[in-house]
Amino acid sequence: xxxxxxxxxxxxxxxxxxxxxxxxxxxxxxxxxxxxxxxxxxxxxxxxxxxxxxxxxxxxxxxxxxxxxxxxxxxxxxxxxxxxxxxxxxxxxxxxxxxxxxxxxxxxxxxxxxxxxxxxxxxxxxxxxxxxxxxxxxxxxxxxxxxxxxxxxxxxxxxxxxxxxxxxxxxxxxxxxxxxxxxxxxxxxxxxxxxxxxxxxxxxxxxxxxxxxxxxxxxxxxxxxxxxxxxxxxxxxxxxxxxxxxxxxxxxxxxxxxxxxxxxxxxxxxxxxxxxxxxxxxxxxxxxxxxxxxxxxxxxxxxxxxxxxxxxxxxxxxxxxxxxxxxxxxxxxxxxxxxxxxxxxxxxxxxxxxxxxxxxxxxxxxxxxxxxxxxxxxxxxxxxxxxxxxxxxxxxxxxxxxxxxxxxxxxxxxxxxxxxxxxxxxxxxxxxxxxxxx
Length: 438
Ligand SMILES: C[S@@+](CC[C@H](N)C(=O)[O-])C[C@H]1O[C@@H](n2cnc3c(N)ncnc32)[C@H](O)[C@@H]1O
Description:
Blueprint lengths: L2 H7 L15 H7 L1 H4 L3 E2 L5 E2 L5 H16 L14 H16 L14 E5 L6 H10 L2 E6 L2 H12 L8 E5 L2 H6 L25 E6 L7 H4 L11 H4 L4 H16 L3 E8 L2 H13 L4 E9 L2 E9 L17 E6 L8 H14 L3 E5 L4 E7 H8 L10 E12 L2 E8 L9 H17 L4
Parallel strand pairs: 3-4, 3-6, 4-5, 6-7
Antiparallel strand pairs: 1-2, 7-9, 8-9, 10-14, 11-12, 12-13, 13-14
């Protein structure tokens, strides 16, 4: 993660430790011999690791946690390996929510922050980061024996913060006996919040990196990274949509037991329907954010039942200067790079000028009036004095799914709806070219 990449993407949270100092693999290798064997040098002399090698990514996480956070950490082979800079972004977003005045700062003058990590995993990454960076207390839950055993080990190996973190087993029996059984049609797994949160407990927030996928085939294996991840970690019948829907239903029961309910969301289409569901159930506030993480993009959603301090007109106003769409069902033989090249030729063939950056997977496009007419097949006299600069970025989401994002150059104004019309044409062309069910 070079400096240039970080600046261009503008993604990392400004308080993230790595925002100005991305991990320096060369320096880490010279300090930690166990990491050294995974570092190699590019022709330009830049230190790199093989992101497809699970052992290399695990060793990187281990040394980063040790070097930058004084955390002693390990996970067994094959368990989901977190990337520290990415996971820190979610923690800092929650920190922003808690310190904002969107909802009143309650807890009767008590400054102790307590969070609830749903599905903490063997890596226990969120409690470890939250406790070490910010001194937060945590309950971290999970369902699998291996996750519970290793989360517990990771906590106990860090006595400086171990008293801040409780690892809690989710009781499967609860699923059968829970009197308050929820009515979700799609989720049939173990309890998530209701039945796990104890009577009278209060939390400032919950967070969750849910099992994203509906099937192991869908989870596939991203050929560009090897973050591990077992069936239990990655897959839930109904996917994240069902899992987060259950969190929403539980939140309706638990209401003010949490000041903020939050979750990561992996698919933009799910974000939309989850936000709609939240409005239906009558939450008082909904917020969302985007986490750009290297070559992937995820979202965060947060909601509360606490009455807001001030009237929020719209919690998430989509900027008309930024547009996105998902390309799902992409044939296996095509990569993000093919899509990027197609975007370039799509605009060039219509007369626009393009500058492709294949390291950052984006293209800067400049279209003039005549180009717009070509693209839109539109002779409208409205298109006068058009001179539009925008960037198209392609993000890998999950195997077979890409996110395409278009953003107007900062400060650029366009005729209302023009970028969106151009984007619609691009979307149609991409679907026709790459998707199984165009
Ligand atoms: C994608 S992993 C996230 C692990 C870790 N939080 C991270 O971000 O790397 C999802 C985790 O949720 C756990 N899980 C699945 N169903 C659960 C439930 N009902 N309650 C608590 N954890 C659950 C899985 O065992 C797995 O460890």
